[in-house]
Amino acid sequence: MLGLPKATELNKQLPKNAIYAKFQMNTAAKERMDRDISRIYIVNEVSAAKVNLSEGEQVKSFFVMSVLLKRKDFDEKNIITLSKLIPQNMVMVLEHEREVKLVTYRTKLLQTSWLPKDNVSLEIKGLDLDSVWENIIVQIGGLTVEQGNTIDEQISINEQRSKLQKEIARLEKLARAEKQPKKKFELVQQINKLKEGN
Question: Residue 53 and residue 61: Cα distance in Å, rounded?
Fold first, then answer.
């Protein structure tokens, strides 16, 4: 899967009931998961022994998990919960019909857009598993890490920018609809202040 070396392939089904039992999930959480997820498989384990790379200081291995979805508009909370329950570095391949989406969790859920199943691959680049894992996060998150930032800092900066852009768009919409010149002027002042801080 994903163009990873054959030596990394596994095909272990992870029964949902085992996950529910191990993590003592309540009925509501189980029902939420069941609404979105049909089956879960561990399909690859990338480790130093299986690919010709040295172990990293933090990353000794990572897993690729195939998650078969019942619906395309899944609840992201279920995927975040799954990421947190299994304490491993993990790439999830969310699959619905003939499309897939790559997802990983690093301070927040990072994901690609939906892609045709046959066109998806994961590039292994780096000298050790730490750098390979960082590059995978960058690939999935579509991140451009600015000079001097760590990946976590860049994710946080991108999130703040996104919130700021949404707030500016919201205020611009209010300003266009506002009839009173004084209120309209105040909104434009707020927008300009936010744009200067950006």
Answer: 11
Q: Give 118-133 pLDDT, tens digit per residue.
A: 888 888 888 889 989 9
Paired with 69 in beta bridges are: 37
Q: What is the pLDDT of residues 48-79, one digit of tens each?
A: 888 888 888 998 999 999 999 999 999 998 88
Strands (E), 59-171: 61-69, 90-96, 99-106, 108-111, 115-116
In this prediction, residue 198 carries a pLDDT of 61
**Tokens 């189980």 found at:** 30
| Tokens standing for residue 47 | 């480790």
> Rounded to an integer, what distance in angstroms lies between the CA atom of residue 32 and that of residue 29?
5
Taking Cα atoms as reference points, which of 19, 16, 34, 39 lies closest to residue 94?
Answer: 39
